[in-house]
Amino acid sequence: MIDSEPRTANAELDARWRSYDWRLIPAVPRDPAMNMALDAVLAERVGAGKRPATLWIWGWNAPCVVLGRFQSVRNEIDEEEGRALGIGFVRRITGGGAMFIQPGGAITYSVIAPEALVAGMSFAQSYAFLDSWAVDGLRALGVDAFYVPLNDIASSTGKIGGAAQARRGGAVLHHATIACELDTEKMARVLRIGREKLSDKGIASAAKRVSPLRQQTDLPRDAIIARLVASFADRYGLTPDTVHPDEEAEAARRVAAQFGTREWLYLLP
């Protein structure tokens, strides 16, 4: 009887996942601003019942820094170094810290579902819940992976990835970025983590040692993504899908009206 309650609880939580007809959007390289806009559009569609619960694997066509919704540009980015290296920045709709993205070195995914999936959970509980399949998938690859509250996927050698979340319009939007390979020299030049604070606006990122997957596995990025997707599909079911033309068009409009504008990018200067 001692172990029955945890097993029952896990079964109930797994049943929540399996109650949805999950769809998979595979990675297609897109402009960073387009990724920010598409994330918002997909969440709105799921919340409105116009799209089933979705696992979206992001693709990137350029390096960038992704700022959290409440971060100051001056606190987080050395714009002069970024311009010299050809690395721009975008701002997402969720909170959390800055992420340094290199197209071939990052795995980014969004779990987008009706908010009922996390009903009764605190944000802290839901972070671990929504990334559990990814952590288990990494462990199956031999990666020393575990969850560190509030929102980090980590190993004994440092942070592997970080997550952010928003609940709005009847949906929960949860996304995470996992580092596969990382040019730490470029990251240190572009990000101001650990440097002097320049503005009293915004929430600063915490300096954490990053430990990309390349330190623990020789598997290429695409193979890791395939294994993670298979882990999700085995547990909860997953039907292949794509971004629909109307969703793509709406995201492009959002880039022009919001995510690509100076007003949004410098929302907190």
Structure description:
It contains nine helices and 13 strands. It has 269 residues and is α/β, with parallel strands linked by helices. It has a single domain, classed as Bira Bifunctional Protein, Domain 2 (BirA Bifunctional Protein, domain 2). The chain has an eight-stranded mixed beta sheet, with helices on both faces. Helix 2 packs across helix 8 (245-259) and helix 5 (123-140) crosses helix 7 (221-236). 40% of the residues are buried.
What topology emerges from the helices and strands here?
Blueprint: H1 4-18, E1 23-25, E2 29-30, H2 32-47, E3 54-57, E4 59-60, E5 64-67, H3 73-76, H4 79-85, E6 88-91, E7 99-101, E8 106-114, H5 123-140, E9 146-148, E10 152-155, E11 158-168, E12 171-179, H6 184-190, H7 221-236, E13 239-240, H8 245-259, H9 262-265
Parallel strand pairs: 1-3, 1-13, 2-4, 5-6
Antiparallel strand pairs: 3-8, 5-7, 8-12, 9-10, 10-11, 11-12
Helix pairs in contact: 2-8, 5-7
